[in-house]
Specification:
mainly alpha; disordered C terminus
Length: 145
């Protein structure tokens, strides 16, 4: 569900991009919503359709990563008005951003760190869950006799 709603929000946000003070940063938020939505759809489809050994605790880490991704995406949406410089310095420079208030810079920093770490851990757990799947071993690996 997270994935589909992220994509929907991203598509609707795409209509607003040209009317923001920093459209380049708004475009970045649009891309974050849509691409992360697709990422979560792939993650959920993989878990449901392919054999794996991903445990319940790992699933909860993936759900937490999804919620952290929402905070990051919404902080980028707000940044289309704030124009912060620190967390997204390349995009901010291209957008002509002048820098936000210290608390705005902190919000962007914390949400990006949290979501980034959450996504890395979630995808590492997903890969481990698929690598540890016993059902993927061939018949030749079965014990004889």
């Amino acid at each position: 569900m997270h994935g589909m709603v992220l994509i929907l929000v991203g598509l609707v946000w795409g209509l607003v991009v040209p009317s923001t003070p920093y459209p380049r940063l708004a475009l970045g938020a649009h891309i974050q919503f849509v691409s992360n939505g697709m990422l979560f759809i792939v993650q959920a489809t993989s878990l449901l359709a392919l054999p794996n050994r991903v445990g319940l605790k790992s699933i909860w880490v993936m759900v937490l990563a999804a919620w952290l991704t929402w905070t990051m995406a919404f902080s980028e949406l707000a940044n289309a008005w704030w124009g912060t410089l620190q967390p997204l310095s390349i995009a901010a420079g291209q957008a002509g951003a002048t820098g936000g208030e210290p608390w705005q810079e902190l919000v962007l920093k914390l949400t990006h760190i949290g979501a980034g770490l959450g996504l890395i851990i979630a995808w590492a757990l997903l890969v481990i869950g698929f690598l540890n799947d016993d059902s993927s071993k061939g018949a030749s690996d079965a014990p004889a006799g």
